[in-house]
Amino acid sequence: MQPQRTANDYKSDLKPVWCPGCGDFGVLKGVYEAMLNLQLDPDKVAIVSGIGCSGRLPYFTKCYSFHSVHGRSLPTAMGIKLANPELTVLAAGGDGDGFAIGGGHIPHVARKNIDITYIVMDNEIYGLTKGQVAPTSPLSQSYSTAPFGNLESGIDPVALVLSYGATYVARGFSGDPGMLAELIQKGIEHKGFSFIHVLSPCPTFNKVVTFKSIRAKTQAVHGHDPTDLRKALDLALDSNAIHLGVFYQMEKKSYNDRWQEVWDQASQKPGNLEDLLQRYA
Amino acid sequence: MQPQRTANDYKSDLKPVWCPGCGDFGVLKGVYEAMLNLQLDPDKVAIVSGIGCSGRLPYFTKCYSFHSVHGRSLPTAMGIKLANPELTVLAAGGDGDGFAIGGGHIPHVARKNIDITYIVMDNEIYGLTKGQVAPTSPLSQSYSTAPFGNLESGIDPVALVLSYGATYVARGFSGDPGMLAELIQKGIEHKGFSFIHVLSPCPTFNKVVTFKSIRAKTQAVHGHDPTDLRKALDLALDSNAIHLGVFYQMEKKSYNDRWQEVWDQASQKPGNLEDLLQRYA
Amino acid sequence: MKKEVLVRVGGEGGEGVISTGEILTQALARSSYDVFTYRTYPAEIKGGYAMFQVRISTQGPVPSAGENPDLLVLFNREAYENNASLIEKDTLLIYDSQEFEPQEACFPYAIPLGKIAREQIGNPLTKNIVCLGAISQILGAPMDRVREILRSKFASKGDLLIEKNLLALETGWKYVQENFPARPEFRLESPSRKKDDIVVSGNQAICLGAVVAGCRAMFGYPITPASDILEWMSRELPRFQGIVVQTEDEIAALSATIGASYAGKKSMTATSGPGFSLMTELMGLASMAEIPVVVVDSQRSGPSTGMPTKTEQSDLNLAVYGAHGEGPRIVIAPMDVEDCFYQAVQAFNMAEKYQLPVVLLTDQSLSQRTQTIPRPILSQISVVQRSRAIHLNGEALKRYAITEDGVSPVSLPGDPGGRYIATGLEHDEEGNPQYDPEIHEQMMAKRFKKLEKAVEEPRFVAQYGAESGEIGIICWGSTAGVVREAVEEAQAEGLSVGTLIPKMLYPVRSREISQFVSCFRKILVPELNFTGQLATLIRTQVSVDLISYTKCQGVPFTPVEILAKIRELHELGGDSLERQKYAATANS
Amino acid sequence: MKKEVLVRVGGEGGEGVISTGEILTQALARSSYDVFTYRTYPAEIKGGYAMFQVRISTQGPVPSAGENPDLLVLFNREAYENNASLIEKDTLLIYDSQEFEPQEACFPYAIPLGKIAREQIGNPLTKNIVCLGAISQILGAPMDRVREILRSKFASKGDLLIEKNLLALETGWKYVQENFPARPEFRLESPSRKKDDIVVSGNQAICLGAVVAGCRAMFGYPITPASDILEWMSRELPRFQGIVVQTEDEIAALSATIGASYAGKKSMTATSGPGFSLMTELMGLASMAEIPVVVVDSQRSGPSTGMPTKTEQSDLNLAVYGAHGEGPRIVIAPMDVEDCFYQAVQAFNMAEKYQLPVVLLTDQSLSQRTQTIPRPILSQISVVQRSRAIHLNGEALKRYAITEDGVSPVSLPGDPGGRYIATGLEHDEEGNPQYDPEIHEQMMAKRFKKLEKAVEEPRFVAQYGAESGEIGIICWGSTAGVVREAVEEAQAEGLSVGTLIPKMLYPVRSREISQFVSCFRKILVPELNFTGQLATLIRTQVSVDLISYTKCQGVPFTPVEILAKIRELHELGGDSLERQKYAATANS
Ligand SMILES: Cc1ncc(C[n+]2csc(CCOP(=O)(O)OP(=O)(O)O)c2C)c(N)n1
Ligand SMILES: Cc1ncc(C[n+]2csc(CCOP(=O)(O)OP(=O)(O)O)c2C)c(N)n1
Ligand code: SF4
Ligand code: SF4
Ligand SMILES: [Mg+2]
Ligand SMILES: [Mg+2]
Fold first, then answer.
1. B151 contacts on A by Cβ (under 8 Å)
2. From-to residues of CATH 3.40.50.920 in chain D
3. CA of residue B220 relative to chain centroid, distance
4. Could you say which of D541, D545, D551 has the minimum Cβ distance to residue C587?
5. With an 8 Å Cβ cutoff, is B146 touching chain C?
6. Which residue, among C56, C71, C75, has the nearest Cα to C16 in the 3D structure?
7. Which ligand 1 atom lies nearest to the CA of residue A128?
């Protein structure tokens, strides 16, 4: 029997390159903890990321990792999960990576209900490129590329992904890595597409969103029935508070399950190379 | 004074290339009619489309048109509307063009609330490329690229675009060009992003979605308050019927309005080339 | 009796032009005739001119689509106008007498096709099958085969429709027998031998090759003329426990292909120009992260949306240079349908061996061409597997170890102790980000070293005709067959001509090309594009004066065009003609 | 006293390395010194080695970043290790004595920078300003200017911070004065003349040029090292009633740019390699639909994500060939900061004149380099406007009319009676879809005709040094300055060397290049990439043996490297060296 794994089994030798005080440290902690709690074998985990400060997360784990290009973590993760369903597959990235350049991919992994856990570190700004406006940035706030104030309303990732039909939708906060670890753990355990929106400050470029400001605006969900999609949408659209916790969870066949059915069905007439050629003779 | 315009003022000399019985004829009719009802000057209208059978629509109008590449009608239309706010700008295309390859653009034009009327002709299939599965195709149905049955749940365009924060969301049916014309007309009149989801059969490749089957499943919205977003979402998620009509409409500053504010603000310190150079002297 | 016959059917898209030709082709091919088809159809679904052509031989492999038809079938006036120039004294012309009257034709067969279908069969859609009966009568086609194929084609549509179609077939057959004199000169001879052949299209051959090579994952997005690869794989790969997914776009398709390959499945995607353009960034990622993938680009007429159903050889530049920065890839172009099979296998082999992206370049005319080809002998095909790292012993895997040939050991997610990070950032041997100037240069060299080996791989160049002499022709892809035919004819005329067909286009096979060009006085490079992309590419590596001969019309060369060019160059003679002149103007 | 001095500051990202250098640069530049900066910094936000270097001259324009520093400032051990090899006998080395001890240095200035900041100023972040005071003392920099810039830099941060920083400055200044002997040999001479100059970075010069050329719409997506173009335009263009939008990705950016230009606004986007790769499909659309757009690609080290903050000249292939099918475009590379301004104007002029996409290729080192340049005289700059169709008279506009130069009349949406459809499909003169073989070939020819004219446009080639002789150097973009400096020195040594700098890279300036190469015995092509992209491109058009000299390390050439190469080629001599040898190996 494999001896109990320790936190060190998940940490790589690379020192995180994030600025002191960056929220992403908390997320990394949450990821370590979730894996530890589940006693995952790091060799059986693949973490995929896109580009951004947040996209560096996989380097700091001892899992198989793929640092893909900007916005493409999800389709890459999908390829991995389909090719090897045995793997636990995580995708991680920022708000820009996920909802700007990569935004077109989310509806399609969500509706497939593919068993990937997707963690978005939302700092309402482009960190790595030094402070431009992000899709989650609020209206009117100023940024280097919106010096007259943002002219667009920020998107609401939770509402969006709910409407995409995701089967596990949660929100965490990098200031509470314990709760976050729990949300991630549940997401990994969930058989299907899990989306975890993480509020994660960028103290270097976003002076408005801080650990303190987030604490003031957020509250843990209470007495919410996570199987009720409309209530989940209500909660997401609630203009009085930002809720943390599980918004929605629903059992549905995962994409790999459906593929298994296809393979079962197809294997009634299994492929054979000579037969294939014969068909054209 | 300009004499009253007639239908012919909107029709180009090109004969539509669609198959007999294609739903897109009805949509074209609706577009002509809406323009006629509004007595638009065709020289002041720009219609942008992507690639697909549906993407051929602009050729059959006498408006300024742009047949862009697959999936890019919305950002192209945005460029046009920003460059010349005087123009009435329409975008048109199919379900694949809009929600597969172009799906990443919708949230961002929606949250800008840019004054474009976007018409999606949804036949639940890829028509031009001859019958592949589309993002709106239902689970389990078979297609040339889903011979074992579609393994993905179809997206719900109305719910999606509502969650994107669009300010005008409606659904029409190409079997009812009159109603459609009205919905398009309202969309054009609406100052902001208007989205019109049109059920439009492809008799050639989609044998399941027909004028008849759509008629059987749809009903016009009744007694619905289109200013209530949650009710609109409920209506969209209603599993008993597919509703036709205006789901949601809301007044909000349009993107061009916000740009006007920026220009007004900026003009307090208007740009001057020599001054600009002087700054670096 | 004819040893070879060329049948062309023209009409409006939706009139059954393509299926008339396809059924005829299948029936003849299954009766051991050699076939070679060519089709062109409108970009619209209905309406517009469609054409199907099949060249049938009793003498063995057909090298090209051929020239003027022996038997021309025209459904309407537009088709007539498009083909009038091809009508010769000895053309047999079948046409719908209610649609138009031809000006001249040697053997006019006026048949009221539409009327017969409507009135005698009671189904206007059977017009093309009436016509098929007429053609079969004239050629003496094996009617049992034709019926067999008709039956299986309509199997899912119910017995009534099958009966209607069989009736239409007989009616057409009889109409000719009763109304026209017997013309034995148009009858096909019996095929000379029974062979172990198969009849497939270029795209089908690619699919078969991919499955044989071990491909078990495909991600793609529909696009003409590559869609049927995705469709074929969707049907067949699940039977091999494989995965096929239609993604939301081509970017997702190549991303997922890369992901699946990283996780250990041989993976591919297939697209055409517009989709291939969208994959540009990810081609660089596959190269940098050293992930084997195969990208099929079935070229069509560009630029931009261009002419989606027409052929062109104009994506070579993009295949070779398409990505920011410099990441090695291999570009392979099969030269005919048989080669589609073998080069698909080779594409996977090269991808796995060198851990990089391989582009397989075909085009509309080759992808959608059906040819009789020798049945591959599976036991003789060698398949390369990725070189896995073993004995990790707790040490970190040097996934990007600098080795002599640039190829490094690899692990797959799940392999105990093989953990590494695949990354698009520049990195050290373990995959950790590294921006040190020397390491960047070393890693660039490591990655490009693979091409030095790859360019020495055997069997990526074919050569036909004279081995030295007056005119050497270098060509690629779908153009090869036409050139081979022209070369044979030219040689029969006593002209000294040979041709070299590089199948690996990048890295450039400089050694073989230099050797070839040194054996001929003039070098002609015919290709289906505007700027002469292969000629340009060769000039980057081989210092030689090439005569670039381009055709950019969306349709293939004909053997006569190439032959005319050969004759012209021959007549110009060697001394009066300075190579430099051509070189200087070739690209202007 | 020094006529020229080179100051380099190295430390960890986040220590203020870059801002120390920037403030010094600004202060000296505003006092009429000529400056030339070069920076390199980590791809991470915090941590990693950052470096800023400024070369200051009293003698007029500075051609390159220069070689070894006269005054070297090192904040920590890593910076020391990175720079130890540059330390010479006469280097003045300022370092933080609490961080490390250097092995050797001629003039070591150990200053407890961090300690002073913490203990005397009470703010550890002012360490770099203490250091700035020390540097100012040694160089005799104009302290009033330095203070002025400090004040404006911290203006928004409150008076307290301004006071702290001014105190830090004085403290550093005094520390040197009190603890080290006066070293007049390090003091800068007064600048020789008062000039009408401006001090800008390459990216700023591009922005200024764009605004002057009439650009009134920009759509972009952030990416290093192009982001500051988007940021600059966001601030300034609205004052000209212009539009700047950060889009959701680069695909949307170029789509919107094309849309805005179609609707009549001169429009641009700016990106770097990864974003440029994503624009590939839309480059073809702009070319096919004949919409003028300017795409700035500030190159960085590739392939893939590569080394995002490092420089490279490796996107030339993509700029020239990046799109499926064949659509003409123009590629322009400015050769220094001043040229960034003029070529930005020219990019818009060419785009409008020829109605096609123009790529403006810069790179990290040039984009982020600050140089003193002559202030442009606006009245002397000519700006091209799109040729509008007039007198439509109710007839359909032949938007794609085949004309002698390939340029067709254009209308803008809203123009009465000017209705047309811009399309990526092949089309006839009115824009209607057309798949006729001849029309496709004619339209291809029409579009490519534009390049025949464009290649004759004047002022796209610069030439320096000997006009004929032993060694001719062809180079491009950011490498030009280094080469010019090396050429001058080589000439001073009596070597006969000249250089040709094509600024229009595509279409290839074959005439000028042929002319140039015929005047020299050997042709050297130095560039910052791995495969020698310019050399390769030239070979496609000009039959000449080139000596490709590449450096692929993410950092610029130094003048000494080029000079060494010149000397080496000179010493090899002409006769012992056959050109062919080089040609054959250059690309291996
Ligand atoms: C195709 C492409 N475009 C742009 C970039 C530049 N880029 C790198 S990270 C990034 C956005 C970072 O923002 P976000 O995703 O929110 O991550 P964060 O740094 O805030 O964690 C951008 C635009 C890129 N690498 N690739
Ligand atoms: C980049 C790119 N990928 C693929 C295609 C091929 N293509 C043309 S139309 C189309 C989809 C058509 O479906 P839809 O958008 O639903 O339009 P419809 O024909 O059904 O109206 C595709 C995949 C293309 N033109 N460009
Ligand atoms: S820039 Fe912001 S997001 Fe990036 S590492 Fe620093 S604090 Fe974190
Ligand atoms: S294929 Fe379908 S969508 Fe396309 S024109 Fe025909 S009926 Fe309409
Ligand atoms: Mg962010
Ligand atoms: Mg559709």
1. 112, 255, 258-259, 262
2. 461-587
3. 19
4. D541
5. yes
6. C75
7. 19
pLDDT tens figures, C332-384? 999 999 999 999 999 999 999 999 999 999 999 999 999 999 999 999 999 99
Q: Are A47 and A58 in contact (CB under 8 A)?
A: yes
Which range among A233-247, C42-56, C406-420, C484-498 shows the weakest confidence by mean pLDDT? C42-56
Q: And the tokens for A49?
A: 């990321």
CB nearest A107 (choices: B160, B234, B237)? B160
CA C187 to CA C193: how far, in whole Å?
18
The dotted CATH code for C4-186 is 3.40.920.10
The residue type at C290: E
Domains in chain B: boundaries: 7-254
Residue of D nearest to A50 (CA): D305
Helices first, then strands: H and E counts in chain B: 10, 8
Which amino acid belongs to residue A149?
Answer: G
In angstroms, the CA D271 to CA D253 distance is 10
Chain segment D459-480, per-residue pLDDT in tens: 999 999 999 999 999 999 999 9
SS3 C197: strand
Q: What is the DSSP letter of C395?
A: S
Q: Are B79 and D260 in contact (CB under 8 A)?
A: yes
3-state secondary structure of C177: helix
Q: Is the peptide bond before C507 cis (omega within 30 degrees of 0)?
A: yes
Q: Is B127 in the pocket of ligand 2 (CB under 6 A)?
A: yes
Contact between C38 and C369 (Cβ < 8 Å):
yes
| Contact residues, chain B, for A111 at CB < 8 Å | 135, 152-155
The hierarchical CATH code for the domain C199-380 is: 3.40.50.970
Work out the angle between the directed axes of helices D143-153 and D17-30 (0-180°, nearest 10). 130
How far apart CA D503 and CA D361 sit, in angstroms, is 10
Distance CA C429, CA C358 (A): 23
B157-B163-B166 Cα angle (round to 5) = 85
Tokens of D120: 């005397």
Encoded amino acid at B14, one letter: L
Instruction: Specify whether the CB–CB gap between A168 and A248 falls below 8 A.
Output: yes
Q: What is the 3-state secondary structure (H, E, C) of C210-227?
A: HHHHCCCEEEECCCCCCH
Question: Average of pLDDT values for D234-240?
Answer: 97
Q: Ligand 3: which of A15, A51, A53, A198 to mutate, most ligand atoms within 8 Å of CB?
A: A53
- Using alpha carbons, select from D240, D236, D226, D238 the residue that is nearest to residue D308: D226
Q: What is the pLDDT of residues B6-53, one digit of tens each?
A: 999 999 999 998 999 999 999 999 999 999 999 999 999 999 999 999
Beta bridge partners of B169: B195, B248
Where does D233-334 show beta strands of DSSP type E? Answer: 243-246, 267-271, 293-299, 330-332
CATH of C461-587, one of 3.50.50.60, 1.20.58.410, 3.30.1490.100, 3.40.50.920: 3.40.50.920
Q: What architecture does CATH give domain B7-254? A: 3-Layer(aba) Sandwich (3.40)
Six token digits for residue C488: 């044979």
**B97: Cβ below 6 Å to ligand 2?**
yes
Please tell me the pTM assigned to this model: 0.96
Chain D residues lying within 8 Å of B265, measured CB to CB = 238
Tell me the best of A126, A144, A199, A202 to mutate to test the pocket of ligand 1, counting ligand atoms within 8 Å of each CB and taking the most.
Answer: A126
Chain C residues whose CB is inside 8 A of the A262 CB are 238
Contact at CB, D252 and B67, closer than 8 angstroms: no
Atom of ligand 3 nearest to the CA of A18: 5
Rounded CA-CA distance D418/D414 in Å is 8
Span C296-312, mean pLDDT?
A: 97
Question: Is the C-beta atom of B126 inside 6 A of ligand 2?
Answer: yes
pLDDT higher than 50, residue A126: yes
